[in-house]
Amino acid sequence: MQTEQAIPRTSPTSDSTDRAARRAVTVFPVLVLAAGAAGLATPDTFAGWKTSVPYLLGVVMFCMGLTMTAVDFQGVLKRPWAVGLGLVAHYVIMPGLGWLIAHALNLSPQLAAGVILVGCAPSGTASNVVTYLARGDVALSVSVATVSTVLAPLVTPPLTLLLAGEYLPVDAGSMVTDILKTVLLPVLAGLAVRFFAGKYIDRLLGALPWLSAVAIAFIVVIVVSGSAAAIKSAAAMVLLAVVLHNGLGLLLGYGAGKAARLGKPASRAMAFEVGMQNSGLAASLATAHFSPLAALPAAIFSVWHNVSGALVAAWMSYRARKSEAAEAAGAA
């Protein structure tokens, strides 16, 4: 789900790290699927766990902060135009798509609000390594994901109010407070710990993605168990909404990069920064402010965008290698 901190934020630099990244991209959706199945099979087991969702998200965001360095922010200063374009594309395309899809599919108010909330969330950090696997611009990907997360308290609540307010009451002020507590403060705390105890944290970086993955899995099991009774009738429609939302986001994100003439690697990064969302945050906010049913789109999005991201990355990587081989043959 985002909050997909199931894989490292930094660019892999060795074969072993590359293998770890690919393994995480493969294992994470399986883990989330297993969690969803458990919530569906024994919903009563997790009935009283709803209040733990914000704390679990806080763990994920704290781990994100631990993996961040000054380089992530320096990238913003070096390429403000590209990062700004990524932010505008992310916070325009995905919220707009969420609203359009909710209307086009005539979703119920709870599900419509949930789909829109997913669109209004910041970038999912799994996008960083998926960008790497796609031979994209990882530095741009990390910069956009970092800034979109920092800006989430200022952007996500008003966007949700604007687009989802017609379906359900939205307390934007309370939502700002929740994002500050569950996203920004844990990220800043992680940054502080990394700054003062970096040499110790470096030894733990390999374990952080899996700690985050477990926390996200628990969020999914709680969300699914809370709406287990409604899933059988709504799951097919929500899956369709999620596939359309994610797929069009990837396509339009790539198109935005191409239209701005950022180059192929940067356009690949734009695709994933637009199409992959912090669905953990969306699930937490939907559970707290709407209902467990409204959090269902975020739970399904968490699984699907990791699967689709890995597949699209593999296809982009294949095309990039083929193009490079052709250029090398022509030069020879």
Please characterize this protein's 3D structure:
- The chain is mainly α.
- It has one domain (20-322): Na+/H+ antiporter like fold (Up-down Bundle), CATH 1.20.1530.20.
- It is built from 14 helices and no strands.
- The protein has helices at 15-41, 53-67, 70-78, 80-104, 109-120, 126-133, 138-164, 172-196, 198-201, 208-226, 228-259, 264-275, 279-289, 296-331.
- The chain is globular, with a radius of gyration of 19 Å.
- Its main location: membrane.
- It holds the Pfam family SBF.
Give the overall silhouette.
Answer: globular
Number of helices: 14
- Level of helix content? over 70%
What is the number of domains?
Answer: 1
- Which fold does the CATH topology refer to? Na+/H+ antiporter like fold
Order of helices and strands: HHHHHHHHHHHHHH
In angstroms, what separates the terminal alpha carbons? 46 Å
Percent strand: under 5%
Question: How is the secondary structure organized here?
Answer:
Layout: H1 15-41, H2 53-67, H3 70-78, H4 80-104, H5 109-120, H6 126-133, H7 138-164, H8 172-196, H9 198-201, H10 208-226, H11 228-259, H12 264-275, H13 279-289, H14 296-331
Helix pairs in contact: 1-6, 1-10, 1-14, 2-8, 2-10, 3-7, 4-5, 4-7, 4-11, 4-12, 5-7, 5-13, 5-14, 6-7, 6-12, 6-14, 7-8, 7-12, 10-13, 11-12, 11-14, 13-14
